[in-house]
Amino acid sequence: YQRRVHGQSKYNNPEQRAALMQSQDSFNRFVETRFRQLQVATQLDLWQEGYKSIEDIHGIITFFKKTPPTKQMMEYSEKLMKVFWVARNYLFHAYAFLKYYNLHTIASRQSKKEPKEGEGRMLASKVLLSVLCIPFWERKNASRTQEEMFVYNIAREKNKSLTTLLGSSTIPTRTSLLQDLVGRKVVQMAAPELQDLYRVLEADFDPLKLCHSLPRVLEFMDKHPSLAQYIPILKKVAAVRMIEQVCKVYDTMKISEFVQLCPYYSFADLEPLLVEVAKSGYPGVYISIDHQAQTIAFSDSVLTCDTLSSQLSNLNRRLESPVQKCVKATSGPIKPTRFSPEFSSNLIEQLEIEREAILERHRVIEERKEIQEQHEIEQMKDQEAEALKKIQEMKDNEEKRMNEEKALREKRKIEEMEQKKAEAESLALLETLKMNHTRAEQRKMPIRELERAAKQNQEEMLVQAKKMFLAAKQERDDRLKRAAKRLGWFERACRDEERPLLQERWVKQQAKEEEMLKETMETKRKEHRLAWELGIETKQRLGRMEEHWNSFRDLLLSAAATQQEVTQEDKADNYDNEETEEPEAEEVEAPAPPPPSEP
């Protein structure tokens, strides 16, 4: 059952969409169906299917722009609480619990019934405990820093989608949830033991006694099964809060003394917790463990510009009040001081240096932001490539599954066709046995028994029919072999008889061919003689023309020779005339000699 495809097909037509949006009955049916799916999925611990049903419910509410009754919304929030608890998303588990508490309060007001004694206190205790158990050192539960304001974060986008399921537009944080609890006075309504726990974890500062005050609260939670599920995570949160407060007071501490601060954990349990907190980058917590010296260092060996600036500002803010009191007690009214020119010039130089340092710091911050953005983009590309790879693998697996199903269907189809073919062959075999055998042979064969067996057991009948068919075929083959032997003997006898006849015929044929050859040779000889005689006659006839031919040839040759001589003489005369004309032209064209010069 494809949930999303079904929903899309319902909403594709605009007319159907308009009708659905105006129909309260359609909305109720859709919501009831999805809530039933959600109930069954949570009962069977199918949390992924339950989350899909929750998404469908939210999509229906958004599509119809209507809100289900308060009881259904309470059930919606309750299932979300369970899903987030199983997914270990304690932030949204607490947020869903707070939504459930608000809806429960609204439902009690609408019903105008007084709640049972202790029911409201227990519910407020659960809400407070779920918020206190949020791991505050994890980055996904912290508020957004200024550096992350323009950085794309996949986890944050995922939290946005989870926030929309709870009907909100802003991502909750542990701090915002605690402020909401205080504003709604949920802390005052909780059990006294949990109020003390809130004060120890969030208000007081006593790292040496923080974890020692926890066993009394744990005993109270053990008495109530609905609160017992929060004990492991509460121990962890209290230990991390103790570590945070110790970091603000101590620089180093022995491991044995540190273990005494948390009586319910051994150092084997605390060491991975210390590593986790140090890796999370929680501000103000710097931890290094020296196993050789059996000590834990809580100070940062490298002071960054941001850390030093924050420490100096805190020192200035805290010393400002006592300094003012000391000044007022020791001196009279403050007179306005006049600064010397040297002091003013030094102050201007110092301000310029600080301004350049601030600009340099901003430049470094921008470079770090660019590097972080590039790193986030690369991570996003890698995640997209991995997601595409997973999608491709899913497509390949689906295609492989479909091919396997197709091959299985074809195999079944082939088996059915073979079975039908076998049945048809068995029936055809029976018909063949009936047609190809005489009545006497059919009496020997139990064909009617085979027909009765065909109605009862097809395979057994087919086996018996094949045996009978093979036996009949063997008998026919034996008859054919005997007939072939008789035919071979008859052929051999015929050839023995015809051998002398063939020899006599061959002798007659050879004599006939010799006579035909002689006749052919005689005919060719006569034709050759006639052709020779005709050639002699033609030669004699042409020989009488030889004298005339020779005289005509001599006449033509002499005429040609005479014509050639006349032509050569004409060419020689023309050549001599050209040579005599050229010198005369040269004498005519020669210039006159120059006149003699006077003395």
Topology:
Blueprint: H1 3-11, H2 14-22, H3 24-43, H4 47-64, H5 70-86, H6 90-111, H7 119-132, H8 154-165, H9 174-183, H10 186-189, H11 192-203, H12 214-223, H13 225-228, H14 231-249, E1 252-254, H15 255-260, H16 267-280, E2 288-290, E3 295-297, H17 305-330, H18 341-436, H19 439-444, H20 447-456, H21 458-543, H22 546-589
Helix pairs in contact: 3-4, 3-5, 4-5, 5-6, 6-7, 14-16, 18-20, 18-21, 20-21
Write up what this structure looks like.
- α4 runs antiparallel to α5, α14 packs across α16 and α18 (341-436) packs across α21.
- The protein is built from 22 helices and three strands.
- It is elongated, with a radius of gyration of 60 Å.
- The protein is mainly α.
- A hairpin with a 4-residue loop joins β2 (288-290) and β3.
- Residues 1-11, 142-152, 438-444 and 585-599 have low confidence and may be disordered.
- The protein has helices at residues 3-11, 14-22, 24-43, 47-64, 70-86, 90-111, 119-132, 154-165, 174-183, 186-189, 192-203, 214-223, 225-228, 231-249, 255-260, 267-280, 305-330, 341-436, 439-444, 447-456, 458-543, 546-589; strands at residues 252-254, 288-290, 295-297.
- Strands 1-3-2 form a three-stranded antiparallel beta sheet.
